[in-house]
Amino acid sequence: MNQTKKTDFLVIGSGVAGLFAALKLSKLGEVSIITKKADYESNTNYAQGGIASVFASTDNPEIHLKDTLEAGAGLCDIEATRILVEEGPLRVKELLELGVPFVKDSQGNLDLALEGGHRQKRIVHAYDRTGREVEKTLLTAVKENPNIAIYEYHACVDLITPHHLKSFSIFGNVCYGAYVFNANIGEIFPFLAKRTILATGGAGQVYLHTTNPDIATGDGVACAFRAGARIKNMEFYQFHPTSLYHEDSNSFLISEAVRGKGGILRRPNGEAFMQEYHPMKDLAPRDIVARAIDNEMKKLGLSHVYLDVTHLPKEEIIQHFPSIYEKCLSLGIDITQEPIPVVPAAHYMCGGVETDVYGRTNIRNLFAVGEVACTGVHGGNRLASNSLLEGLVFAERIYRYISNENDLSFEREHSQIPLWDKEGMKNVEEWVLISHDVQEVRTIMSDYVGIVRSNLRLERALRRIRLLSDEVTDYYNRTLITLPLLELRNIIQVAELIVRSALMRKESRGLHYSTDYPENREPSREDTILQNKNVFWRV
After folding, report:
1. Model's pTM, two decimal places?
2. 195: annotated active-site residue
3. Class level of CATH domain 262-344
4. Which CATH architecture has domain 5-236+348-414?
5. How far apart are CA 281 and CA 237, in angstroms?
């Protein structure tokens, strides 16, 4: 069963970025998508709010640019951000043409919502099921495309680079594809490709409380780092201010759009408090709202605060937020009659694999797109509903770049890539060790590397994570691969990258708030870059 597969384009991940890239690249050749679980399971599927894009007559790309730059705390890349806001409407129109059922008004115009950090209504949406509808539409188009194959329950073990060759590449560091784990049969095989596109999403499972699905274990960043890719600004992990707090339920996102519709954050006694933290009150950027809630909880000894929409018409609440209404009602909370208990939860990775404006990494033939990538458009804090937009815009730009390339082959090197060697590996049934280590690293990250940090907390976290890393590396090197083991290995790798990046930034900026340094929101281009120097190849 351990046989080599080949494709023109290997897309790792099946969210909006991966599916959109696959559809585009299918015009150029054969595309293979690998995804860890079922094809629809992705962060995209859980995205509620919508896609930020300029369609209103009162709006323009310059205003969207300004809002994005201000939310980004002075760290956004101007060129990449301008591309995002200017090309975004064209990509949204493509989704409309594919059949995504965005909500429209009685005149047939897109119904545009308002979210935190935006000064104009520009959120294109399908009520609070936007991500699900986009994912469903793209998957339908992908499955109807004869040039695209989807491999479910397949995970990336490691990217294949000259490190794995029996002889070295004259081209420097090159990606030839990936070693892929087939979870159904427990086998690993080389999946060779002319171009590899990382679209693996985020890493919310690094924390105890997250709005992300179970698959969000940072696989793309971890694999890219091990292969020698440059990893940028990992200290900026966005905590969504409002996830549902309930003792009998996992975290569930309460969309930014709820506050956009008029939802008010309140203390248990009913007092609104956001006016004490920012002029935009409940519609302030996410980093400010999350930190305000965290401060209220610590100051008053609370496990959560409340988000109140009871002053809005009942019919409007149910129409615009059907998923939130149904979820809360299933837990005995009628949001039309009582406020929603909310708490911040890990939501979005603003850093990631460094790319240029065409999705290229520093490893030849390796591209990254979506949440796994760091294009620079989010800076130190992502503006609400810019995430799906980024995936669409830069997936198109990857296609545009590759379509203009002349040489798409490295067949000589492909012939030298060895099969996966599992000689001497044992099938050790020690799941309790893996589950314990996962829980331990999440607890460390939540306790020491959350919304508010300090050098003391970060140094303690790094020491403990490195001990776990040594344990897991030893276990990995003598044990047959399983999906939980792959995910644990990646979670620990990403956790270490976040902590090391946070220690390198000697200021409070955006999502990185340290009690050791004053907050700085003046423009800055000081990026945090980490690269694995233990990967060697000859040039």
Report:
1. 0.90
2. no
3. alpha beta
4. 3-Layer(bba) Sandwich (3.50)
5. 22
